[in-house]
Automatic annotation (TrEMBL):
PROSITE patterns: FE2OG_OXY. Transmembrane segments: none annotated. This is Fe2OG dioxygenase domain-containing protein. PANTHER family: 2-OXOGLUTARATE (2OG) AND FE(II)-DEPENDENT OXYGENASE SUPERFAMILY PROTEIN-RELATED (PTHR47990). Residues 31-140 form the Fe2OG dioxygenase domain. InterPro entries: IPNS-like_FE2OG_OXY (IPR044861), IPNS-like_sf (IPR027443), Iron_ascorbate_oxido_reductase (IPR050231), Oxoglu/Fe-dep_dioxygenase_dom (IPR005123).
């Protein structure tokens, strides 16, 4: 996973015209605070509902504090992203792919010149508001 993260970070740095290792070295350094977190979402008991009347499980609406988050769905649905109009779109699981989310720290490092959003096809797109834009669909 660390290698995949570094490759994604290096591709992003290349796309921004920065030094190739500017982000990946933060993950590779011995003193790095990078982490691997494994989450499991067991099903709720029947009859347990939220105020909205729907079963709820997971972290709820949030942003990721890291540089990037790399997710693997293992053919399990549930990942949603907020579209620019404020509605939520479900991302279909794909066991052959990783999903890459832009984290808060990357936005701070770039002085918020990078924004992430979803297209109607459900693919994450990354728009760098300086000189270029590029897309990351699947990283295998």
């Amino acid at each position: 996973m660390k290698r995949v993260c570094c490759e994604v970070l290096e591709a992003m740095a290349d796309g921004l015209g920065l030094g190739r290792n500017v982000f990946s070295r933060m993950v590779r350094e011995e003193r790095s605070d990078s982490c691997l977190r494994v989450n499991r979402y067991p099903p709720l008991m029947c009859g347990v509902e939220t105020l909205s009347g729907q079963n709820l499980i997971g972290f709820g609406e949030h942003t990721d504090p890291q540089i990037i988050s790399v997710l693997r769905s293992n053919n399990t649905s549930g990942l949603q992203i907020c579209l620019t109009d404020g509605t939520w779109a479900s991302i279909p699981p794909d066991h052959s792919s990783f999903f890459v989310n832009v984290g808060d720290l990357l936005q701070v490092l770039l002085t918020r010149d990078i924004k992430d959003f979803a297209t109607s096809e459900g693919m994450r797109q990354f728009l760098i508001t300086k000189d270029i834009d590029f897309s990351l669909g699947h990283c295998v």
